[in-house]
Write a structure and sequence with these properties.
Layout (H helix, E strand, L loop, with lengths): L2 E5 L8 H14 L4 E5 L5 H5 L11 H5 L10 E2 L5 E4 L6 H10 L5 H6 L8 E5 L6 H9 L2 E6 L5 H18 L5 E10 L4 H14 L3 E7 L2 H8 L4 H4 L4 H17 L9 H7 L4
Parallel strand pairs: 1-5, 1-6, 2-4, 2-5, 6-7, 7-8
Antiparallel strand pairs: 3-4
The chain binds adenosine-5'-triphosphate (ATP) and magnesium ion (MG).
Magnesium ion binds next to helix 1.
Length: 273
């Protein structure tokens, strides 16, 4: 049964999509059957994987409207073990309808029921707000992964999500866990980074993941070329960091297995650069 991880934080531009896409690609490289779902009608994770309106056959929009079943919305990607479901929202009218359908907070959980057995990991790339689609994602998920960018209001956004998780546990998904807080766009030895780290350590220390994602321009560049960083610049620090994150998450959930990333895969896709 898949572990469903919602990549969520109620703050824009913190690295949710970059994390969802690159963690999904890294899990796939480790031969974990992975499904990435774009919950954000903006469609950034589809673009980051090279999908355009012309190459998308159906998405969550059609699934939520009962126009197609969820298997018809699954798209293959360049990586053998990575599948993708876009949101496929192409107009304001569609967006309004999509949001209205998402008022039913169980619609995603119900839609996923038939396919989670086919995957090891399902990642949900959430929008930067907590209503509707994020609520759906958190209702369906086993855990939430919170990407945090150093800066003002980062702690506020984490507080908000933790409070929201309390509510979600009460009304919709009593067993949802915190996968962890992931530091993204990290620049060592800057005041902003130091303050953010100190504040988070003090309040949420036990949730902070070991892996830290550095600020690395390759991660932005790769999305312009419609590729996860690992297929664009395998030796970049960004690729290495997301591979390390995949290793950390796999190791946590699959402790019984001897080697979370096979040596041949580490060799093929590079060690920490
Ligand atoms: P939104 O809330 O708008 O959906 P988001 O949280 O999904 O945003 P991203 O789109 O992943 O954030 O990232 C915001 C911007 O920061 C993008 O231009 C992305 O390329 C860039 N970025 C993300 N992570 C890194 C990184 N580690 N180093 C450098 N740039 C990064
Ligand atoms: Mg995004």
């Amino acid at each position: 049964m898949a572990r469903i991880i919602a990549v969520a934080l109620p703050k824009g531009g913190v690295g949710k999509t970059t994390t969802a896409v690159n963690l999904a690609a890294s899990l796939a490289v480790a031969e974990k059957r992975t499904l990435l779902i774009d919950m954000d009608s903006f469609g950034a994770s589809g673009l980051s994987l090279g999908f355009t309106d012309g190459t998308i056959k159906a998405g969550l929009f059609e699934v939520f409207n009962f126009i197609t079943g969820i298997t018809s919305a699954i798209h293959k990607t360049e990586l053998k073990y990575l599948d993708f479901i876009p949101s496929n929202v192409q107009s304001l009218q569609m967006e309004e309808r999509y949001m209205r359908l998402a008022d039913n907070r169980s619609i995603l959980r119900n839609s996923l029921r038939g396919i989670t057995k086919d995957y090891d990991y399902v990642l949900l790339d959430c929008p930067p707000f907590l209503r509707g689609l994020s609520t759906n994602a958190l209702t369906a998920a086993d855990s939430a992964l919170l990407p945090v960018k150093p800066g003002h209001f980062s702690l506020d956004a984490v507080d908000k999500l933790f409070n929201y998780l309390e509510w979600i546990r009460k009304v919709a998904n009593k067993s949802i866990e915190v996968e962890g807080i992931l530091m993204t766009m990290h620049e060592p030895n800057t005041r902003v980074t130091d303050i953010t780290m100190r504040e988070l350590q003090a309040k949420y220390g036990k949730y902070i993941l070991e892996t830290i994602i550095p600020k690395n321009t390759v991660l932005g560049e790769a999305s312009f070329y419609g590729k996860p960083a690992i297929l664009y610049s395998v030796n970049s620090r960004g690729s290495a960091a997301y591979l390390a994150l995949a290793r950390e998450i796999i190791a946590r959930h699959e402790r019984v297995q001897t080697s979370p990333l096979q040596p041949s895969i580490i060799h093929q896709f590079g060690q920490q650069a």
